[in-house]
Structures are given as C-alpha cells and as structure tokens.
Amino acid sequence: MDYLVTRHARSRCTQRGIPQRGVELLVAFGREAKAVGGAQIIVLGRKERLELESEFGHPALARLRIESDTFAVTKDGCVLTVGHRLKPVKEL
User: What phi and psi, each to the nearest 5 degrees, are found at residue 90?
Assistant: First the structure.
C-alpha cells in the first residue's frame, strides 16, 4: 500500500534525523500494531530488521538511519508522524 506522508511527518523526519527513504522502507517492511484512535503504529522488529539487512545490507541501513526504535504512525493511508520509541510497543 502506498502511503501519503503528511507535512507534519516530513517535519518530524527532519527534526529527528530520519530520511524519507527510511520511512518508505519502514512502512514497506515494518510490522503493524493498533494505536489509539484507530491508527496503526509501524515498527521494525528483529525479524523485519534481519529481512531488511539481507536485502539491502547493514551499511545501507546505517546510512538510512533506520534503527530498531524508529516508528511511524499511520491512519487511512497517511503517515501522520515518525519518531524513535522510548517504550516498547505492545501487541506485536
């Protein structure tokens, strides 16, 4: 599914050092969990990170700054915000 990235999410990417390509890969390979208000939170678990590393290589992921704590909040086909988790995501 293609996601539209909101202006707010683009701003947060810039502020938090997460490149746009990193968000695209996070959405494509990440695992979804339910969030408040009918939204979904997308995170990279260990399995998804290994899949990304096997496909793109570890150096490529390091350049994209996709860490295991990076998340995206989506709803209705839009990426609402992105960031770095401070607490574990439940229901994965």
Answer: -90, 165
Which two three-digit tokens encode residue 48?
Answer: 């998804």
pLDDT digits (tens, 9 = 90+) for 36-60: 889 999 988 888 888 888 887 777 6
Q: What is the CA radius of gyration of the chain?
A: 12
Residues in the chain: 92
- In three-state form (DSSP H/G/I as H, E/B as E, the rest C), the secondary structure along 14-65 is HHHCCCHHHHHHHHHHCEEEECHHHCEEEECCHHHHHHHHHHHCHHHHHHHC
Residues 6+ away with beta carbon under 8 Å from 83: 12, 16, 18, 70, 71
